[in-house]
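Thread: "does anyone have the structure for this chain?"

Original post by V.I.:
We have the sequence but no experimental structure in hand. Need at least a predicted one for the grant figures.
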Amino acid sequence: HGTGTKSNDQTETAAIKRVFGNHAYLMSISSTKSTHAHCLGAASALEMIACVMAIQEDVVPPTANYREPDPACDLDITPNVPRERKVRVAMSNAFAMGGTNAVLAFRQV
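Reply from O.Q.:
Generated one for you, tokens below.
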């Protein structure tokens, strides 16, 4: 699960690149956990709300407290302030200890 450690961030970056290929560099990447902390069972619900609002408002939520980019995490991380851009699809990944994982994808209709 996304712990915000250097190792975990690099693993998540590699997974995004593996799944999306070159398209990964065109996507805005964000983590709202840096804003609301780890809310245990409510974390995925908050991420879902953030995804839906991003699509409705055409704003990518920021990754709060993002200070030093890691060269190994070379995707378009949305740092510190929301970014206005057209959002047609948003995805939330939830990975928990013990192998309980879920991915939700939302799209504009």
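V.I.: this helps a lot. The longest strand covers residues 89-95.
O.Q.: and The CA atoms of residues 58 and 86 lie 5 Å apart.
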